[in-house]
Amino acid sequence: MTTAADDIDPALRAEALASLLIERGLVDEAVMNNFIKTYEQSVGPMNGAKVVARAWTDPDYRERLLSDGTGAIAELGFKGPQGEHIVVLENTPDVHHVVVCTLCSCYPWPVLGLPPSWYKDPSYRARIVREPRAVLAEFGLDLGEDVVIRVFDSSSEVRYMVLPLRPAGTKGLSAEDLAALVTRDAMVGVAQVAAP
Amino acid sequence: MSGPGGHADPAYLLDTSGPAAPPRDNGELVFGAPWESKAFGLALALTDAGLIDWEDFRQALVGEISGWEAAHPSGEGWSYYGCWLRSLERVVSAKGLIGAGAVADKAALLAALPAGHDHPGAGHDHG
């Protein structure tokens, strides 16, 4: 019964569900563990950072990225679940983009990995739509009143990623050095990339 | 309810600086507890095997989250993976893979195992 199940410690419920699925041959434990390991260790914002650095240093790539996010991201080898329809939003000095999933937690896994806890929090999901400027200020991002803030709601159809502004004073840096500056928060749009 | 900047979940405040530190995502562990990673891995493995449909699962998750939010306006006690796990149980049951009630029965069995018996999923338990 679902009401009774709600009273059971989730750790026990997860263990119970896993045991049943594995015992009955419905889940291969090795496959399950491999998914966990992949998203704990191999897939994360370092992927998105490479995409951003490439877009900053290669205008043709930047154009492909903005017109076909999924395709341009796959060029760098990043694909997989939740990456089928990625749209990249380019920040400019006048327009700042920030991403949310108001209904659940849709997020572009191949470039950012799994979302952080605050992204899934009911507070962020509700408030970033209602009062983006105030929420961004709580993240430490104070945008001038002349900067337009656009909030994009990710869904099963489209996952958004932000292409942040390249910081001033980084002209001589290689793509590799630039990638090291790019943070997850900047690619969700709750931060900007700081100069080194 | 902490604001979006309130990341102070104690589960994340582990020593993440040493060479044996777990990989992290801008300072946060991806999962707050082993059961969260298990709930995650199960959903992906079932989808990968074609036994559940990801969109069905996502819809169930949307429903769980909005139901939880409606019932808990203060936000107190929020657990994203708690919603995830309940959604997964719901979809698995709707697909006829594991009957409703079987998970609770199994959990009760596991809870009754003596302390120290910490690998109940090893397949020797046909209770």
3D structure, described in words:
The complex is a heterodimer of chains A (196) and B (127). Chain A has 196 residues and is mainly α. Helix content of chain A is 49%, strand content 11%. In chain A, the strands form two sheets. A two-stranded parallel sheet of chain A has the order 1-4. Chain A has a two-stranded parallel ribbon with strand order 2-3. The longest helix of chain A is centred in the N-terminal third of the chain and has 14 residues. Chain B has 127 residues and is mainly alpha-helical. Chain B has a domain of 62 residues. Chain B contains four helices and no strands. Chain B is globular, with a radius of gyration of 17 Å. At the A-B interface, helix 1, helix 2, helix 3, helix 8 and helix 9 of A face helix 1, helix 2, helix 3 and helix 4 of B.
Write the layout of secondary structure elements.
The complex is a heterodimer of chains A (196) and B (127).
Chain A: H1 2-6, H2 10-23, H3 29-42, H4 45-57, H5 59-67, H6 69-75, E1 86-90, E2 95-100, H7 109-112, H8 117-120, H9 122-130, H10 132-138, E3 148-153, E4 159-163, H11 175-179, H12 184-188
Parallel strand pairs in A: 1-4, 2-3
Helix pairs in contact in A: 4-5, 5-6, 9-10
Chain B: H1 34-48, H2 54-71, H3 80-94, H4 102-112
Helix pairs in contact in B: 1-3, 2-3
